[in-house]
Amino acid sequence: MRRSDAYVAARRDSIMAILEREGRASVSELARHFKVSELTIRRDLDWLESRHVLSRQRGSATLLNPLGRPSGSSRIRANRAIAREAAKHVEDGDCIFLNGSSTALNIVDFITAKDVTVVTNNCKALLIGEQPNVSILLTGGEVRPSKASMIGELAMSNIRRINAAKCFLGCTGLSVVSGITSATAPEPSVNALMLERSKEHFVVADSSKIGLSSSFAFGSTDEIDVLITDTGVTAEQVSSLLTHGVGSVIRTEPTLGNERTPELLP
Question: Pick the residue with more confidence: 176 or 64?
Answer without folding.
Answer: 176
